[in-house]
Every structure is written in structure tokens, then in C-alpha cells.
Amino acid sequence: MERRARDLSLLPKAHLHLHFTGSMRPTTLLELADKYGVHLPDALTGGHPPKLRATDERGWFRFQRLYDIARSCLRSPEDIQRLVREAAQEDVRDGSGWLEIQVDPTSYAPMLGGLIPALEIILDAVERASRETGLGMRVLVAANRMKHPLDARTLARLAVRYADRGIVGFGLSNDERRGMARDFDRAFAIARAGGLLAAPHGGELTGPSSVRDCLDDLHASRIGHGVRAAEDPRLLRRLADRGVTCEVCPASNVALGVYEKPEDVPLRTLYDAGVPMALGADDPLLFGSRLAAQYEIARRHHAFTDEELATLARQSVRASAAPEENKTKLLADIDAWLAS
Ligand SMILES: [Zn+2]
Questions:
Q1: Residue 147 CA: distances (Å) to CA of 38, 151, 152, 153, 178
Q2: What is the model's pLDDT at position 47?
Q3: 86 an active-site residue?
Q4: Which residues does 61 contact at the CB level (< 8 Å), separation at least 6?
Q5: Residue 280 Cα, ligand 1 centroid: separation in angstroms?
Q6: pLDDT tens sequence across 235-248
Q7: Are strands 201-202 and 245-247 parallel, antiparallel or unpaired?
Q8: What is the pTM of this model?
């Protein structure tokens, strides 16, 4: 007898790659834009993800502009609380048992009274949303590689100072084609010395060399995306040997034109090479799909079996900064899902 496929929104998993504004519900964006009189471009109101072709600089610029417009609709502590609460609710609905949300507080500082107030408002919102939804949540502070490395150092110091308030990692985002990873090595050294995990973006818009730079210069323990490592078998072996997890975001890759079609995202190549992965939604607001949908892509377009999908979920849990007791519980719940 043919059995029905297990429900992927019930598969317990950790979500390690989700950006702050990018996590917003589309309906919430419409409401906030209306409240503040912000005119939204069609690409943000159409109900389906815009085609962005971010592999050229104009496409990336367009993506950033849409992101900036969406962010400009977050103006008060209440807006921030709503965003985080809804992100947690959406994650719970998709089977997430642990969420690490990524934010550059600098971008929110002008609206929220400065860098430190912005960070405190964000951390309070995360703590509150976690309490209200029961979802374990932590924060990655991400520096912007379009800005000066000194800004990144300031952020790293701040992130370390607030580590006991729920910050677990330090990231680096924005256009990989700008600046060198090496320019940010001091910021990452500060973050690592303060006990934060290093999780910079790499291997998305540029090839394997950007992943190597993240390993060599920033001592990354996780890589945001990292998919372009698939072009270099030696690099894959290195990632696998060191157990460096790639936070792979298939729907994002297709929306941004990194790959043409879902089946082109090299999930199989990474998986077969033994590179641990944590599937993530990146910016569901702009890419139109959330966490469980990423696992659906692995199932539908890459023929991952339920056993393999459970392996992916375990990899996401193991790569998270969750306390051991949370990990043990989630891993047991994954086994239960597979046994169901
Ligand atoms: Zn990202």
C-alpha cells in the first residue's frame, strides 16, 4: 500500500537564515505602509515574488531598494514587536523549533532613537515573542559589507556586550562583490573572542573563492548560503571535514537568479559531499515562501526521501546555537516524525 507523504510543516527543524524585515508578512507590510503613508512599488504588492536578477549589480540594487522601502515601514517599538511575533508564529506553523533571526540594528537606529535603543527594542521583542509563542529564538547581529569595516567592529563589540541578552552570532551581509571578507577580519575576531559564532554570507553572488575567504579570513563556523561551493569539490570536502554548515535558501536563490530553476540549486551536490545544511527562507517577504517550503523544494525537485529530509532537519538543529537540552528534544521529535 502506498503511504501518504509525511507533512513537512510537522517536521521539527531549526531556522538559521532569516532576515529581520524580510521576515514580514506581506499583509502586515500593506497595513504598515497604509498607516505611515508609504507608497509601495508594485513589486511589493503583487502577491507573488518579483524576478530580481541580483546576479548583476543593478538587480541587486533593486532588491536592496525594495528591502529598504519595506524597512521604512517599521517605525515604532510596537511595529518591531509585531514583526518579530508574526515571524515566530509563521515559523511555528512551519515546524520550526528554533529560530535565529538576523539583523543589522544600524538600519533601524534612525527610526528608533539610535543604535543601542534599536538593539534593545529588537532584543526585547525577540524575548517577548519567544515567551508568547514558546519558540526558542536568538539573534545574529549582521554587519553590512557596503559600510566601513570600523562600523562592523563597533557592531561586533556591541553584539558581544549584549550576548547575555540573546545574541548568539555575528554575520556579514549585502553585496559579496563589494569589499573583501578580509577587511572585516578584526570585527569577526572580536565577535569570536566574545563567544559568538561567525556566520557570514558567502558563495551566493560570487563563486567558491568567497566561501574560502569566509573560512580563511573570518573563521566562519557557518556560511550564509555557501551554495556556490558546489563548483569546487576540494572546497566541499573542506566544508564537510570541518562540519561547516551552509545555510542554504533555495527559493531565495531562484528569486535572485543565482540559479534559474529550483532543480538547479545544488542541494544534492552538497548533501552527497557530506556538507551539513540548514535550509532557510532568507527573505520570505520578497521571495514568497517560508521555511517548510524550502524542504518541499528538496522533496519535489531533488527527490529527497523522508529519511533524507529528516537528516537535513537534524543538520539544522545541530548547527544551531540552541542549548543542548533544546537540541536533544528537537532531535527526538525528528525521530518521532520519521516514525509516524
Ligand atoms: Zn541572507
A1: 26, 7, 8, 11, 10
A2: 67
A3: no
A4: none
A5: 9
A6: 999 999 999 999 99
A7: unpaired
A8: 0.96
